[in-house]
Amino acid sequence: MQFLDDSLHPENQEKVVITVAPYGPEWMPEDFPEDIPVTMAEHIEKAVECYDAGATVLHLHVRELDGKGSKRLSKFNELIAGVREAVPDMIIQVGGSISFAPENDGQAAKWLSDDTRHMLADLDPKPDQVTVAINTTQMNIMELLYPEYIEGTSLGNPLLGAAYSEMTVPAGPAWVAEHLRRLQASGIQPHFQLTGIHALETLQRLVRKGLYTGPLNLTWIGVGGGFEGPNPFNFMNFVQRVPQACTLTAESLLKNVLPFNMMALAMGLHPRCGNEDTIIGQHGQRFGSVDQVKQTVRVAKELGREIATGKEARQIYRIGTWYKDADETLAANGMLPNRTAGPIVPSAHGR
């Protein structure tokens, strides 16, 4: 992305699209019973509360009544239908992992099989987006979860912590290509969850080959443990490499969430919050998803940025937009065209 002298002025920035992830699949309800929904009615109510507070994108997971993450697509269908009826303008973004929580202490924490994740393209009603990872990557969410932050929670259980520390995100080339094919065939927009510049470069190559022909909505994930670490220089380097016409959301964890959201808001980018990312505030207190959204709105307003409505967020994300081929996709996302013959940019020496 390129920045002009007045790019940090709010009148020259997009309205803010706030993503909220209020279903915290890595936590158990007893870790934060005031905030983590269990029943379907509670799931839907949480979506409505977050929307009313200012969030226009709902990162969606769902639980069974025993509090464990659901792996049943029928439950996802039920929740999507309920949210769609309650807040029809909210963008529904299904988490592509489905549910990575282990069934029992000591079992592996893992994403479901490739075939099962492909079935997200068959959800009914269809979500607006499904998050898509690029490149198989270690996802050790425990690396930066310091003991004092998880003391007294389920992640303080050594067996559960060990299970999460060994988790990987399976997203090899064949799976990604097939997943993108199915999502596009179903008219569902991928939202790309990128773990670093290597993932961004792979995604750009996929676009150049014509394997994805839609808007590039990206999230940079700075959670460490195989993903980029929560270092501002990592984030700024990534921002610099992102094509001009993409949208970019910042995602981090625990006490890093607010600082990265503030950086994103200042630069005209977009924030993500919610109990999937943190259940504590900057002073170590329990901090729920709705309050996190309200805080994000306050910071945005202090910076002079307006909050996008649901309909405006759909326009910013270009929901429902597709392009005819690689060339049109490259142009629409602010990328250089594919090489034909000779240099893409004329050399100064040739004048």
Automatic annotation (TrEMBL):
Transmembrane segments: none annotated. One of its GO terms (molecular function) is metal ion binding. Pfam families: BKACE (PF05853). Its cofactor is Zn(2+). Keywords: Metal-binding, Transferase, Zinc. It comes from the Bacteria. The keyword Zinc applies. The keyword Transferase applies. InterPro entries: Aldolase_TIM (IPR013785), BKACE (IPR008567). This is 3-keto-5-aminohexanoate cleavage protein. It comes from Pseudomonas umsongensis. The lineage of its organism: Bacteria, Pseudomonadati, Pseudomonadota, Gammaproteobacteria, Pseudomonadales.
